[in-house]
Write a structure and sequence with these properties.
By secondary structure, the protein is of the alpha+beta class. The protein has helices at 24-36, 40-51, 118-126, 130-135, 137-154, 167-173, 179-195, 284-291, 326-330, 350-367, 403-409, and strands spanning 65-66, 71-72, 197-200, 206-209, 243-245, 251-253, 257-259, 261-262, 274-279, 301-303, 310-312, 319-320, 332-337, 376-378, 426-429, 457-459, 490-492, 496-503, 506-511, 514-519, 527-530, 533-537, 543-547, 568-574, 579-591, 601-613, 618-622, 626-630. The strands form nine sheets. The chain has a six-stranded mixed β-sheet with strand order 5-11-10-13-9-14, sandwiched between helices. A five-stranded antiparallel β-sheet has the order 20-19-18-15-21, with no helix packed on it. The protein has a five-stranded antiparallel β-sheet with strand order 27-26-25-22-28.
Length: 636
């Protein structure tokens, strides 16, 4: 049943202004609402939660959902390669024990659930063809209205003008098969109705929904939906999301091997400092099968795209194997989002973004994790733990994850924190997601351009000229490309860098030990000025080494725990360059290489490290090697 907590509005939701002049899309909502006798506000609210009213030019979402109403026909658009089974990354990322490369059998496709087959049902109800419902926004909206009206009738409720009486139909529309998920979805829709929204859609026209702050839906209708009840017992989730416990197994197998995570006592030992955002590269049901295989790897939470439902697999106190770097694994919580990196138009639903933001807000508050891009990392921001691991690290969630919108939902929008003109010494990367469309290749065919699409990432060049060479990642060793998985010459929304130079519409930053340029025109900026702390080598040092993990010095390891070594990366921080400080952390190593926890222990040294934004990925530098200063005092 819905709880009162589920009715709380999402952080960052803003009231809409008065309705703008009607666009063709707005008129389509009005026409469909009139034809199927659905309140227009309900239709708009549901569509906003599905797609934020975007059409995506007929391209399917990550779960095969089409158009503003996200009508699903998943047979047309599902990938099969699971996230941790591609590439060379060892998800555990700890050389103290043999790697456990994922060997789990990829599950075969099962019968698609009803939530992934709503478009064929809409075709039956409207008489419109599936092709029309996929490609014509007005037809798609009509299909959504028909589904809502059918849900309302099935509950024995009248088709009426009052939005308060449509709560049960909205819950049914979610496609969820349990009351908690359906209630969480419906409550999000009614949050949108109360706060109102207005935005310019990707179709080029405005759509608006006037706020109804006093709207109180009839939540009692949920009892009539006939949905099953799923227990949230055992989960660590906020009351504002739907969550169930589907445990990853901690089991012994084979030749004294075990999987697929390690038991611990976090945050007491080790601490929890980061949250890592992944995408699954696989469909929900298959992903759940994999995480329940003890020979595979693990993560703490999975999030479903259609309705934002969450499954928790590993307790926060324990260490999941997800990031490819043992230091990050032992100090982080991993979130897998149903989605695909190399499918630019395989978009994420607003329902999943909102559910994820609520979960991250809850976890960050519980464990004292700052809500910034140095602590809320993408898997693509996690450094290789050693030089040998650098080239095999994963690159998800990739350039199409909307970090700007995500942080708005977290209640921490990226904003200028210094005056323009470089006086703050830093920039925060913040392009307009929809308008920012750098060219990527290799999404579908090697060497071929990906579909043009909005992106969170900005391209870097060796000079203030788009014809100049791309920035090279010396640690990777290969020539830079525009490949969707090549991170060498890309910065991401929310990341901060020290300004190295400016030239007209171009800004240079210190990046991977080089001066890297990006276009930053005043009329359409891709970054905003910022201020903060930076590090640079101590006086007398030409450069200092960087590390992919903050491990203790050799003298800190007790008998019985092998010295892990500092293992410098193939990068340095040169004299005269400055990099933004994310955090100061102690050297820490969690020794856990056996199924029995008797030998597990946390080693903490005297050495301190700074986490810095070095390239696209973060890195660590010994505090003893650098000096810290204000970016404003060190502005170029």
């Amino acid at each position: 049943m819905a709880s009162a907590a589920l009715l709380l509005p999402l952080l960052g939701a803003a009231p809409a202004t008065a309705q703008s002049s009607a666009s063709s899309l707005q008129r389509a909502f009005a026409a469909a609402a009139a034809e199927y006798h659905v309140p227009q506000s309900v239709l708009l609210g549901v569509s906003y939660l599905q797609s934020r009213w975007d059409t995506h030019d007929g391209a399917p979402s990550v779960t095969g959902g089409y158009g503003p109403m996200h009508l699903t026909d998943a047979r047309t658009a599902l990938a099969t390669a699971p996230h941790h089974s591609e590439g060379t990354e060892d998800a555990r990322g700890d050389s103290a024990r043999p790697a456990l490369p994922p060997a789990a059998r990829i599950p075969s496709d099962k019968e698609l659930p009803a939530r992934l087959r709503t478009l064929p049902r809409a075709a039956e109800l409207t008489g419109l063809s599936p092709e029309e419902l996929r490609t014509d926004p007005a037809a798609n909206i009509a299909g959504g209205a028909a589904l809502l009206a059918a849900a309302q009738r099935s509950l024995g409720e009248p088709l009426s003008a009052g939005p308060a009486g449509w709560y049960g139909a909205v819950a049914r529309f979610s496609g969820a098969d349990d009351t908690a998920t359906a209630a969480a979805y419906a409550n999000d829709v009614y949050d949108v109705l109360r706060t109102g929204e207005e935005r310019m859609t990707d179709a080029g026209g405005p759509v608006a929904l006037a706020a109804q702050p006093d709207l109180a839906p009839r939540t009692s209708q949920l009892r009539e939906t006939g949905l099953r009840t799923v227990s949230a017992a055992g989960t660590e989730c906020p009351a504002t999301v739907s969550c169930e416990w589907i445990p990853a197994p901690y089991e012994q197998f084979g030749d004294n091997d075990y999987g697929n995570h390690d038991l611990a006592d976090r945050p007491a030992a080790p601490g929890i400092k980061y949250i890592v955002v992944h995408d699954t590269e696989g469909r929900w049901e298959g992903v759940l099968d994999l995480v329940q295989d003890p020979t595979y790897v693990s993560w703490n939470y999975s999030l479903r795209s259609t309705d934002g439902h969450i499954a928790q697999h590993v307790k926060a106190k324990d260490v999941a194997w997800h990031a490819g770097n043992w230091y990050i694994n032992s100090t982080s919580i991993g979130l897998e989002h149903e989605g695909f990196l190399a499918q630019p138009d395989a978009w994420y639903t607003e329902a999943m973004y909102r559910s994820s933001a609520r979960l991250v807000t809850y976890l960050a508050a519980k464990y004292g994790i700052p809500l910034d891009r140095q602590h809320i990392l993408g898997h693509d921001n996690v450094p290789g733990p050693t030089a040998a691991a650098v080239s095999g690290m994963h690159t998800d969630p990739g350039p199409y994850w909307d970090w700007r919108h995500y942080f708005e939902l977290l209640g921490r929008p990226f904003a200028a924190t210094a005056r323009s003109g470089g006086s703050g010494g830093l920039v925060t990367i913040r392009p307009d997601y929809a308008a920012n469309q750098p060219v990527y290749t290799d999404c579908a065919v090697k060497g071929q351009p990906c579909a043009a699409h909005g992106s969170s990432e900005v391209r870097l060049y060796s000079d203030h000229d788009e014809k100049s060479a791309l920035i090279k990642d010396v640690g990777d060793g290969s020539a830079p490309t525009t490949g969707v998985n090549d991170l060498a010459s890309r910065v991401s929304t929310g990341q901060q860098y020290a300004v190295a130079d400016q030239w007209g519409d171009w800004t240079a930053i210190w990046y991977l030990g080089q001066k890297a340029w990006f276009r930053n025109p005043e009329g359409q900026p891709t970054a905003v000025p910022a201020a903060g702390q930076v590090v640079t080598p101590k006086d007398g040092l030409a450069s200092v080494p960087l590390y992919g993990r903050a491990y203790p010095e050799a003298s800190a390891y007790p008998a019985g725990v092998p010295d892990q070594g500092l293992a410098a990366l193939p990068y340095t921080l040169p004299k005269g360059q400055k990099y933004v400080v994310g955090d100061k952390v102690p050297g820490e190593y969690y020794y856990a290489v056996t199924f029995s926890t008797a030998s597990h222990q946390v080693v903490i040294g005297d050495d301190q490290y700074y986490e810095i934004q070095y390239g696209h990925r973060v890195a660590f530098v010994r505090a003893a090697d650098v000096k810290v200063m204000s970016s404003a005092s060190s502005a170029f």
